[in-house]
Design a protein that fits this description.
Number of helices: 0
CATH class: Mainly Beta
Low-confidence stretches: none
CATH superfamily: Ribosomal protein L33
Strand order of the largest sheet: 2-1-4-3
Shape: elongated
Oligomer: single chain
Number of strands: 4
CATH topology: Rubrerythrin, domain 2
Largest sheet: 4 strands, antiparallel
Amino acid sequence: MAVKKAALACTVCGSRNYTITVKPERNARLEVKKFCRHCGKYTLHKETR
């Protein structure tokens, strides 16, 4: 079985900066404050599938 991956997208500029592995037991989308190199600051990133 292949590993499923998702991207974390910046809520300010929309760029997809990070990738994560999707765990099957988690059904809510991940929201984390991470550094966006395009914005140059820490912003909220949301999981996209």
